[in-house]
Amino acid sequence: MARHLTQITNPLKQFLSARFTKQWRLDKNINLADTAKLPAPLFIAQMRGEAHLKTAFFTALEQKQITDPISQQYAWQQLITKGNCLKEIMENSGAAAFFHLNTQTDYIQQCYNAYCIILWDTAINQSPLQNTLTTGLVNHYLPTLYPSKAKSKTPEQLKKEIAKLLTQQWQLKPEIKESFETKEDEVIFSLKAKLARYNTSTLITIKGKRLNNTRLKAYKQYLLQLESEQTPLPKALTPLKKEQTAPLK
Fold first, then answer.
1. What percent of the chain has pLDDT over 70?
2. d(CA 177, CA 234)
3. 208: which strand partners?
4. Hey, which of 64, 71, 96, 240 would disulfide with 90, CB 3.0 to 4.6 Å?
């Protein structure tokens, strides 16, 4: 996500450089966090930029089928009210330094007001950057609120992990075997480890209602057990003694 932020910060940096001369700086005596006491041009820019941000923000959510008020409120609070997203954009684009933002006093509010002022400036100048600072912001940060769930591992993948861990413990590579018994209302499923010249060892046995669910559960349970404690090496098979033949008389 961080590297894609340049799709927002680079155009913002270019806009500020082209829109204002390098010598231009905001009056250091202006407290950008005190919205009500801003000079009239900045006050109007902040108010109208804020209105533009809110309208575009919620429109972007609705386009993503996020229409219920609770989800919309959550997104606004996490992405805008907390201020971390705007702070990151303002700092990485150089806009925070450009506006002489003071990190000691209401820094998040300063970032918010400066962002709104810039947004309104992009709007009145019909710059494509206004979409980047609204819809682009939502597109970039919204996935952080809804991280994709890791896909569940299949029994075959879990079997490989179990075999690998047992190989590390035993210094011998086992073959993981399955066995099950079905009855009228339950299934009894077992995992076993088979080694050449060793007794076959039952690793786990569990009961369940359905075979597939019980099979997956057995693999998951045993893998957790294996990760937390050592599994004893099975007993070696007793070598068969060669039959002695009676000497010829």
1. 90
2. 15
3. 187
4. 96
